[in-house]
């Protein structure tokens, strides 16, 4: 199996909406949500995205800053480690058994 680049969860902030639109045309991103205006002064716009580690550095340019929020790949691996490895249905004594009861559908209103 080949080693894949980790995916980063980033926040991209652009000086204005047009700068953000230009970036998104040039660098299609796996975005998480809609662009929002920032609370700071000016017309800054921000959007969150998921990008390979190598692409994150290429996004930063004049009028655009990129902040890494977390390594999404590492977060995913940590969550997977919390999942049990056993087969909880392996013991036939634990599997639901028996016959269900078939009910007639009386239609709307009973």
Automatic annotation (TrEMBL):
Residues 77-110 are annotated as: Disordered. This is VOC domain-containing protein.
